[in-house]
Amino acid sequence: MRNLPPYPTELKPYGRALVELARTREEILCLSGDLTRQTEIDLFQDEFPERFIHAGMAEANMVSMAGALARRGFVPFVHTFGVFATRRPLDQIVNCVAYPNLPVRLVGFMPGVSSPGGPSHQAIEDVALMRALPNMTVVDVADATEIRQAVGAIVDVAGPVYLRLKRGEIPVIFGADHEFSLTSAQVLQSGEDVLLVASGMMLSAALAAAQVLGDAGLSVGVVNLPVIKPLDSSGLLAAISDARAVVTAENHSVIGGLGSAVAEVIAESGLARRLRRVGLADTFAEGAKDATSLFRKYGLSTQDVVDAAWGAIERHDPAPRAPVVETTPGEYAPV
Predict the structure, then answer these.
(1) Alpha carbon distance 69, 75 (integer Å)
(2) Which residues pair with 105 in a beta bridge?
(3) Share of the chain above pLDDT 90, in %
(4) Model confidence over 56-113: pLDDT tens digits?
(5) Does the model's pTM come out above 0.90?
(6) 66 neighbors 78 (Cβ within 8 angstroms)
(7) Domains 9-171 and 186-310 belong to one CATH topology
(8) What stretches of 181-316 adopt beta strand conformation (E)?
(9) Helix 144-154 / helix 13-22 crossing angle, nearest 10 deg
(10) Of all helices (H) and strands (E), which one includes residue 77?
(11) Helix (H, G, I), strand (E, B) or coil at 84
(12) Which residue pairs from 54-63 have beta carbons closer than 8 angstroms and sit at least 24 positions apart in sequence?
C-alpha cells in the first residue's frame, strides 16, 4: 500500500475490469442511462455491442428492465451517476430488484460532493437509501485496485448490489497484494488513541490524517471499510475496542451512511467510545467550478479528519496542520 499521497492514477479501471470479466461470463449484460463514456462502459460497448443496452435518460425504466433481465438468468450491470442510480428510480429498485432479491448490479458514479453540479447531481444520500433496503449489498471502494477486485467479487452475489465509484482519474493506493473482501473490514494499521474508519474517496484523507496525527505523537488506527452492508461488525468492534475514540469519514451525509452504521455497532455492543463523524452535515451542498472547494467548504478535507480526531480525544491545544500536497498531471491527493 502507498501510505502517503500523491498517488498515481488510472483511467477507466472499472470499464476494463468489466470487459475482462464479461469475456468469461456470457450472462453479463451492460445497461447505460445515456452516460456511456462518462461511466467507462464505452469499452464494453465496443467489445460486446450485442450485450449492450442503451436505456436512455429513463432510469426508472432501465432498472425495471434490469430486473426483468435478471429473472431470465442474466446478470445486468446498470450504469449512471449515483444520484440517478438510486434516488430517481428508488421505487423500481425496491419492487423490481430488492424485493425479489435479483442479481442486478447498480453502478453509481460521481458520489457525494465529488460532483460540482449541485443538489440535482450530488448523491449525498445514496448509501443511506441503499443500506435501508433488505437484500441490498452496498460497496464504496477507494482506489483502482479495489475497483478491479470488487467487480469480480460482486458478480456472484445472490442478490442486488450497489457499487459506488469515483469518476475520472482513480488513485492507486493499494498494491497487487491487496485483498478486497465482501465480508471483512480491513485494518490497515492499529492504534490506541483514535481509530479512523473510512470508505471510498475518504480513505486517502484518512491515511493522510493518520500520518499527521502520528507525527504529533498519537497512536492512530485506520480501518478501510468498503463494504458498508453487510457490515463486518465483529471485525470493526475488535478494532474499535483497541482505541479510545473513533472517527468515521465518508463522502456522504453523516446521516444514514458509514457514520450511522458505525454508531449503531458501537451503541449495540455497549462499548463506551467517543465518536465523531466526518461527512456532509445535514445540508444540501451547492454547485461549484470544481469539487475541491466543496470538500473544504462542507468539512470533508484531511484537516477536518485531523480536527475531528483531535477533538475526539479531548485535546485542547491547537490541532496539527495537514500539509497541502502538490500534484502533477497523473497524480491524485485528497483535499
Answers:
(1) 8
(2) 77, 161
(3) 99
(4) 999 999 999 999 999 999 999 999 999 999 999 999 999 999 999 999 999 999 999 9
(5) yes
(6) yes
(7) yes
(8) 186-189, 194-198, 220-224, 227-229, 245-253, 274-280
(9) 30
(10) strand 75-81
(11) helix
(12) 55/31, 57/33, 58/33, 59/33, 59/84, 59/85, 59/88, 59/89, 60/88, 60/89, 60/91, 60/92, 61/92, 62/31, 62/33, 62/89, 63/89, 63/92, 63/93, 63/96, 63/97, 63/104, 63/106
Looking at this protein, which amino acid is placed at residue 36? Answer: T
Here the cell at position 299 is: 468539512
290 by Cβ neighbours in 10 Å (0-12 / 13-18 / 19+) ranks as exposed
- Position 326 scores a pLDDT of 94
CA dist., res. 309 & res. 325, Å (int): 20
CATH code, 9-171: 3.40.50.970
> Are the C-beta atoms of residues 97 and 69 closer than 8 Å to each other?
no
> Does residue 149 sit in helix, strand or coil?
helix
Cell of 44: 464494453
Domain ranges of the chain: 9-171, 186-310
Predicted local confidence at residue 1, as pLDDT: 63
Q: Cell 465496443 sits at which residue?
A: 46
Matching residue, cell 471499510: 225
CB 168 within 8 A of CB 291: no
Q: What is the pLDDT of residues 242-286, one digit of tens each?
A: 999 999 999 999 999 999 999 999 999 999 999 999 999 999 999
pLDDT in tens, 282-299: 999 999 999 999 999 999
For the domain bounded by 186-310, which CATH number is listed? 3.40.50.920
The residues facing 248 across adjacent strands are 197, 277
Whether the CA torsion 255, 256, 258, 262 is positive or negative: it is positive
- On whether the CB atoms of residues 19 and 44 are closer than 8 A, the answer is yes
